[in-house]
Structure formats: C-alpha cells, structure tokens
Protein 1
Amino acid sequence: MNTPRPTILIVEDETYILKVLKTLLEADAYRVLLAKNAAAAEMAVASHMPDLILLDLGLPDQDGIVFLQELRRWSQVPVIVVSARNLEQDKILALDNGADDYIAKPFSAPELLARIRAVLRRRTGSALPEDSYNVGGFFIDFNKRSVSVDGQPIRLTQVEYRIVELIARNPGKVLTYSFLIHNIWGPYADAENNRILRVNMSNIRRKIEKDRMAPRYILTEIGVGYRMAEQIPGDKKQR
Ligand code: CA
C-alpha cells in the first residue's frame, strides 16, 4: 500500500532552527511546509491542511499561544509546541490552549520524532473509542471498568478508576492537572488545588506500580500533569 506521506508545517522564525527541523523531518520522509510568522502559518493551514504543526511560541507578529487559541476556533490540526520557553506555566498554557504536546528547545531529534509519531498515531486512531488499553503488563478494560497488572486484578475506588481511565484513553498525551481536575470533579472544582489529585495518584501508584517512586505506567510531567506510557522501556513484546 502506498500511503501518502504526512505533511508537517513548521512555524518558526529562526532560520537555523527551521533548517534543522526541515532536514530532520525530510530525512524521516515527511513532507514539509514552512512559515516564518503567524500570518503565513494561518495561510498555510487554510490552504494546505497539514497533518501536524510544529509551533514556536516566540513569533515576530503574534504570540504563539494567541495563534493557537485562534487556530482552535476553526481547526483541530494536531499541534506540537517546540519552544525555548521552558517554564511549567508555559507548558500548561500551551496544553490547556489546545496544543497536543510540548517539547522544549534544545530538543533531542529522536524524542521529537517519537512525539510526532505518537501524535499522528493518536490522530489516525481516534475514529473509534478503544475497548481497552494495554502496556507492559498494565491492562484496562473500559467496558468492564476493570484494571489489572500482570494478570492480577486491581481494586480502585470510583475516583481512582476515573482518573486512570481518562489518562489511559489518551496514551502518550500529557493531561494537565487542571484538565484532570475539571474532568473528574467538575468545571467548578478548584483547578489551582491539585492536592486531592496528587493524593489519589499516590494511592493509584501504590496499587498499580511495582515501585511508586519510579512509576512505569502513569508518568509525571513535573509541575504540568500526567502522561500514560505508550511503551515500557525494555518491554518490546507489547507492540
Ligand atoms: Ca522564535
């Protein structure tokens, strides 16, 4: 089968980084479009409908976050923010405004390519909701609402299960604390106060992880949120 190559739009005003990204992506067989500012990016999205956008936040004509907010009013194209702004608040802001993932500069090429593959995979696989999720011995059955690890059933409270389900339905994607809090405890819950979420996560990890200080299934993005592992290092038999 001859599947068309995914098209990636790079939105970046620094020529050097633009060249590095272009070379990297073309070597990995992606088609590449370039935009050096927000206005050109908007045109490129509207006329070429790329499969994914790599977005720098520091653009000459518009803040990348504002670009993202405006883009999300009319397009669901996946966006990975690639930014030198590396504060937790910047990552949270990007993710809560519709970015699919966030990678800090300077980035590692293999990591960037892996994040791109993960976002594209989620995109193509999102047509039907999955019945289950399975990674390295962790198994969740969304219909039976059951979780097991290495075949051993795990007893979770209602809230613990809902947290695990939400994270497992978005493997590889960072879910921010405020996203989780609003989805579990409702829109009026205090998203600034993530203590209850942390307490629940600590209990979940005690139940599902062999070593809860070095979790393998639900990973922490420090200060930002949680991410379900897509693959367990050293565990090649899963996929
Ligand atoms: Ca820039």
Note: The longest helix spans residues 109-124.
Protein 2
Amino acid sequence: MKAIILVGGQGTRMHPLTDHLPKNIVPLCGVPFLTYQIEQLKKAGIQEIVFSLGYRPHDIQKVYGDGRRLKVKIHYAIEKEPLGTGGAVKNAESFVKGHPVVVLNGDILTDIPLKKMIAFHKESQNTATLGLVRVEDPTAYGLVLLDRRSQITRFLEKPTPEEAVTDTINAGVYVFEPGVFDLIPKGQNYSSERGLFPGLLAAKARFGGFVWRGYWQDIGTPRKYLTTHWDVLNGAFKIPMKFKALKNKVHIGKGVRIGKGAILQGPAILEDGCVVGEGARILPCAVLGKGCKVGEGSVVSKSVLWEGVQVGEGVQLEEVILGRRCLVPSHSRLSPGSVLGDDSQL
Ligand code: GDD
Ligand code: MG
C-alpha cells in the first residue's frame, strides 16, 4: 500500500512560527515533525509516500528529498493554489492510481496501529475508513457518529458547542479504496470534511470508523505544539531519542557546555553545541535547539527554543516558544504563553 500525507496547509494558527517554515516540518524534540509520520508508515510496511503540498514546497523537499535517507520513496504532488484537503488527495492520484491508499493529515501525532486499521477496513469491506479518537473538546475537529457496526452515520466538521453530541472525532487518518478518487472533483478546491465525507454518507457507501484509544494530538496551534513536547518528554508518546540521556533524563547532544553551578533537571533536551551559563537552570520540559545559549542565572522550563536562540542573563522563560535565532536580552521578561517568530529581538 502507498500513502498520501497532506502537508499543504499554511499553518495560520501557528503564526509567527510558520512564517518561514511549514508547520509539518517544525521540529518536535529536535526532529522535523513529518519524520514521525514517515516512521509510522514504515512500521505498517508502507514505503512509498506522496507529499501533497503547495505552501513552501522547497522547504520540505530540502529536508526529505526523494526519501532515500529514511529508506522510503517520496513523491511530491505540488499544487499551484491550495486545493483543500480533498482536492489535495485528488492531486496525488496519479502516484497511487488503482490502489487503496492511507491518507494522513500532516499535523497529527498518534500511535494508531495502521496495520490493524487497514485490516479492519478490508474486513469491513469499506469504501473509506476514518481513524477516530475521543477528545475533551470536539468543537475544533470533525465530529463523527457511528452505528453499532462501526459504520459512520454522521460527519460534522467543526460543530458548534450545541451540535457537539459526541466526543468522538476524525483523527485525520484515512484508508480509501481507489473509487474514492472518482468522487473528488479535479483541479478544484474541495474539502474532504465538507464535501467528500457527507457525499459518501449521501451515497450510502460503506464508510466506517476505527476507534483508537491510544495517543493522539493535532500539533496545529502553539499551545498544542508545546504540550505535545511535554507528552513526548514525559513518555506518553514513545520516540527513539536521538541524543544520549544522562541519568536524570536530560538528553544531551554533542559539544554542549555547562557552566559552574548550573542545574539540569530532566526530562529535557539540549541539542548539539548548547551553552548553559553559570548558575543557570534548565528545568523539566525545556527543549533547546542546536547552538542555543542561556546566560548566567537564567531559568528555562516547559519551553521550546529553536536553534540558535540567545538568552541573556537573569531571564526566566516558562511555557514559551522561541523561533530560530531569537535574541532575549538580559533581565528582560517574557510572559508564559509567548511565541516569537524566527529572528525576533526583544
Ligand atoms: N495540500 C494541501 N492543500 N494540504 C492541505 C490544505 C490544502 O489546501 N489545507 C489543509 N491541508 C493539510 C494541512 O497541512 C494539515 O496537515 C491537514 O491538511 C489538515 O488541515 P488542518 O488545517 O490542520 O485541519 P484541521 O486541523 O482544522 O481539521 C482537520 O484535522 C482534524 C484532526 O486534526 C479535519 O480533518 C478535522 O475533521 C479533523 O478532526
Ligand atoms: Mg490540524
């Protein structure tokens, strides 16, 4: 089987982080996000993947090329104008023609067992199967109602609080039979959630839901992006860490320098070349990208600093996200929840 990953959204909810980087390749614990999805597809035996995209395609091509480095084959279906979640699937059709396909929204992190989901799809003889998860607040997602035989009876994208009659939502993981492509208009902006799925229901197609009760997160807002880091660092989502771990769960890259009296408390990550000043404290859920510098006496906790961030002396950073090469002067204040784009200077 082959897969299509939708990576064309402009990431507006992630602004300003996504002004210079598509959200699908923002670093998660030092690794471009899509790599996790590629690894998940590989685990299910899928080695040929189409990235369907339009926004900053070269940034993504620069990271993944033809996929050889990750031992997969990657194709790029590039759209001139955003085609929407359905149009983007259609635009990738020529690479997967005639075969069933797995489709992933390119901004979700989940351990949904794809092999089991594909087996369920086949056993149920579905035309389309959606992966489903349960969340506390379904209003930001596509709400799904199922009957007793796991067939979908209703799909409602972004319901109002009154309409939210279930907590089961579309996880952004699909298995489609080839016939699904015939239901999507070509070359038009078309939404799977507002067009294709209601259309499958209207046509009384076999349209099933595979409920997953494991880990699931959409990383598409700064808050969720931050809390996903905490989940990974706390072990709720398992990844092979690429940096060596000290015994207090501090993962350290090469050439990291730690000043006298500095305290490191895990779980935390300090990538290659980070410098921690005297008496500074790197506290749980701090992630410091390559070459970050934290000045004397400064404290970093529950924050994500992309590469090259320079923090002066006596600064407290808690629950902030700082883009590449941000400069935070000594003794300045940033309130929790702050998000600064690349190259910001306070
Ligand atoms: N190629 C392409 N072109 N990709 C697109 C486009 C487009 O025009 N628009 C969105 N995408 C990609 C995004 O990059 C993302 O990976 C995926 O499609 C979903 O788009 P989002 O903008 O993140 O949608 P959402 O999070 O509001 O809602 C979707 O995901 C939820 C689960 O996270 C819907 O599918 C919901 O039903 C679902 O619950
Ligand atoms: Mg999303």
Note: The chain has a mean pLDDT of 96.
Protein 3
Amino acid sequence: MSELDIRNVHVGIDGHEILKGVNLIVKQGEVHALMGPNGTGKSTLAYALMGHPSYEITEGEVCFKGIDLLELEPDERSHLGLFLAFQYPVAIPGVSVANFLRTAINAQRRAKDPDDKGISIPEFRRMLKERMDFFQMDHSFAGRYLNEGFSGGEKKRAEVLQMAALQPEIGLMDETDSGLDIDALRIVAEGVNSLRGPDLGILVITHYQRILNYIKPDYVHIMLDGQIVETGGPDLALHLEEHGYDWLRKRKRSAAA
Ligand code: ADP
Ligand code: MG
C-alpha cells in the first residue's frame, strides 16, 4: 500500500520560514482534510510536495512509496502516482484539454514501461467522454485550450477530470472548492467521491468547511502558522465551523508562553 509520509517538513520562501515542522501521513484509501485560515501555509505544503522551485525544503523528509520524494523532479513525482490539483490552475494557450490529458497519460504510461505505445485514440476518446459525462461537462470542453477563459467552476472540474484520468495513488486537492457555486461544488465533490476507494488517498486542502459536507474525510488536520496543531475525525471540522480557530490560537499562544 502506498503512503505519503511527511516528516518534520520546514519550508522557506525567499529565506522566510513558512512551514515550521509539518508531520502528516496519508495512505491509499484514506481521505484527509487539511484546514486552516488563509495564509497559514497549506498551499505552501502542496507546492513543496510537488517540487515547485520557489519552495525550498530546508529541513525534514518526505517519503512516497518508500522513495525519497525530495530527490525527484516534479514529473517523476507525478509518474510515481502523486497528483496535485492547483488552487490557481494556470492556462496553457494552444494546448487543448484532450491533448494535455493524452500527453499526461502517455508520459505516465511510458514512465512505467518505456515500450508502451500510449493509449489508443479510440480508447482515450471513450474514457474522456465517459468522465466528462460523469462530471456533467459539455463534450466541447475537451477541445478548449486548458484553463484559457475557463470560469472558476470549469477550472476546478478540469482539475478533477485530470485526476480521474491520471488515476494517482495520492491526490492533493488545494482549495478545489473555492469559487464554486453550490451545484458545481456538488458535482466536483461527487466526482471526488466516485474516485474514492482503496487505491486512492486524498488530501483535501480547504479553509472552508463547506466541501466537507460533501466529501466526508476520515481525518481532519488543522494548520496554524505553518504547523499542524490538531488532528481528529470528521467532528473536528464541525467543531471548527461552530467555534472557529480562536481556541487553537489561544492554546498555541499559551503553550508558547
Ligand atoms: P494558505 O494556502 O494556507 O492560504 P499559503 O501557503 O498560500 O497559505 O501562504 C503562506 C504564507 O506564505 C503567506 O504568508 C504567504 O504570503 C506566503 N507565501 C506563499 N507563497 C509565496 C510566494 N511565492 N512568495 C512569497 N510569499 C509567499
Ligand atoms: Mg492556499
């Protein structure tokens, strides 16, 4: 069984320490929610895990499937089965959603088997149609340039579509709920729920409890100021909705004093 094992990770941006010792284990088959107010470092963790060059890991270790993740290039991390749905997906003008997905799928297949001929066009089309139907996307979506002029909801659906097509072992979803109206949120959440199963571990990053009404996490973690300060079950998210983060801030301050 695959697991992502994050140990005492410190991350700096331009010499400023943002993450101050994060510990977290996500296993295949589990759904974790990472919550916390804006600016606490949730996205920083996601970017650092994917190998974004601006996010320097100054201390700590990350092991994925027993391999030192930090030694790998971003594409190698992805081929190994780690997926990141971005909070702010970038547009790729000139590259259609379909082309992007087919290229990504083929790169992943070739990383596993250098002789792989790639997914056949009919098989790819069938898979893509099936997934788009599931996410209630118009088929013309496949021909549009990735994220160019996409609405907030379309961007998020495109991210979940990518995750469905790439079938990662661990998926990180950064604020996949932001900018979604309630219908789009439900579709995205149903999509994620449909992918749930023993082969997929998910880390849902959100500062908003709302998506957790639809995606029921097994574990909830709360990040404050670059550290996970509380871990619990789904009830913790409900507790937060009612009480906010202040009790954790106070507890942290008195522990530091
Ligand atoms: P969250 O996702 O929890 O809202 P972020 O990880 O985006 O928080 O940000 C954590 C802190 O790091 C913030 O103070 C933010 O301003 C800072 N930060 C994030 N990314 C960058 C960057 N590329 N350059 C400089 N500072 C950054
Ligand atoms: Mg963020």
Note: The domain at 3-88+170-179+202-256 is CATH 3.40.50.300 (Rossmann fold).
Protein 4
Amino acid sequence: MKHLLSAADLSRDEAVAILDMAEQMAATQAREIKKLPTLRGLTVVNLFFEDSTRTRISFETAAKRLSADVINFSPKGSSVSKGESLKDTVLTLGAMHADGIVVRHSASGAPYQIAHSTWTDASVINAGDGTHQHPTQSLLDAMTIRRHLKGGAAAEAPAGADRLTERAAALAGQDLSGLDVMIVGDVLHSRVARSGVDLFTTLGARVTLVAPATLLPVEVDKWPADVFYDLDRALAEQPPDALMMLRVQRERMSGQGGGFFPSPQEYSREYGLDARRLAALAPHAIVMHPGPMNRGLEITSEAADGPRSVIVEQVANGVAVRMAVLYLTLTGAKE
Ligand code: NCD
C-alpha cells in the first residue's frame, strides 16, 4: 500500500490487516519503552492546511513512536499565506526528501492531486479532505468497535502487556459482520460519515444514518446505508451496537445562508444524545464521537462522559491505527 487516500479503496482483507496491525502496535504501547525503530531514517511531513488538534497530534505521536523524523507544517506563518500554491508547497517538501506526507486540506481531492502528481514520490496519507474522506478516522472507529463488540472476553479485558497480545490474537482476522452502526447528525458536511459508511459496510456491518433532510447529501440514497429522519424511530427499529454522534460543523455552514436547522435547541431535542435516549440503548451498546464535541448540542455531557462512552479510547486507538498506516505505506513504498 503506497498511499491511503480513501476508505473506499480498502478491501475487506486489507482493512482487517490494518486493524490487526494496529492491535499489534497497541500491544507495544503498553511497554515501558514505547519507541520502535521501524521508520528510523524516514521523514514524515504533517501538512495541515486546516485546523486540527487530535488528528495532527495523533499522527505526530505515531510517527515519533516509529522513530521517523517529523516535520509539522501549517500554512499560518508560511509562504502559503503569501499565496504559494499547493503545487509549490509540495515541490518544496519533495526537494527536502519527505518519505510520507500526511495532508489535511479544506478542498476535497487535495490529497489525490498530490498523490497523482509528479511533484513528489512520497506516500500520501489523507488526514481529512473537505467534506470527502478521513480514512484513518474510520479505521480508528472500526478498531474501537471491533475491540468492544468482537473477540469475546479476551478482547474486552485489557490489563498488562501480556493481555494485550492475547487481545490482539483474539481479534485477529475479525471484521464487523453482524453489527449495527448508527451515525447521527451532520452527515452532509462530514468526511467522518462518508469514510465510516465505506469502511464499516466493507467490514460487513449494517450502517444506519439519521439526520434532518437538510443535513443529508442529495446522493445519499445511493450510499450503502439505511436512512432515517427520526432518531427515536431509528433507535427503536434498528437498535445500534455502536452509536456515533457527529459534530454539527458550523464552520462549513457559513456563507450558505444557514437554515440547516431551526435552532440549536430544536436540533438537540430532535437529534441530540441525551439521558432519555442513552437509557434506551441496549446494555452492550457503545457511544462514539470523533471530536471535537459541541457539548449540549449533539451530545450531553452525561452521554459523553458516561460509562458507555468510548470517546477517549477512540483518541488512544488513533495513535495505534496511524502507526499501522504509516508503517504499511512507508515501508511498502520502499520495497
Ligand atoms: C473530524 C474532522 O476533522 O473531520 N475530527 C477529527 O478528525 N477528529 C470531525 C469533525 O471535525 O467534526
């Protein structure tokens, strides 16, 4: 695997192999010395044209744990603010012999443009492009779901490094077949939802999307997912094993005249995860959110911090998934 541009590019076996590798990476992270020599001598550039907290830090941590040299490049304070183009920026990075470029950009397709250009021969990993794709997010989501809902007791109870190896073995080879994943909220602007639908269905799960019609893309009927406009009805008719709440992406709504929903209060009432809906979930069901959360809008603090919430685990699993992806793309590219 030279690049990771879209969750839709992964076959079931490729996706399972990445998750298995991520479990092995996670097992190494319980050791006293977390650093592996795997990518020593290679350079990874984090090229983030759009704001990010956890994704950028997660990629940086992952690359450093694998002993790569890491360069963080963000356009503020660089020549990009002087109007330098994507092409010239990447040519500059190419001249510095970057082996991997992790890119986040507000334009859907920017990582493809870089990967398919002659500007660089580095591996390109998409860390979120516009409203299009965010493949490592859906992989860390799948890892979190698999760990909680597959693999039985050995997968559930992590304690000590030896148990982690046991857990990796219990999960190895498993996909998400038989599971119900429900994704709720601002699907229209969400690369997390698009990547999730692609990956979870490839892994055999059934995906249900719930949103007001104004926050669904026009082509949603062509997606391999069931669609509901009524959250309570969806929860009753297709009770989820994993319930993923999406952030209302207000920054992508400006300039479009607003009007995606009548008021924040009404959005919370119709589509928010509150105590009543939380209590209606199956006993084993988990609550997810990619972050950053709008507490009180799409999710209450009670739900975000409650015993079903795996939101902090999602962040931790992100490091393991990104270690696996960096390893597979950068070493695959060298062979
Ligand atoms: C997501 C993103 O940037 O696409 N966040 C993330 O990567 N953790 C989701 C979001 O911003 O709502």
Note: The chain is about 40% helix and 15% strand.
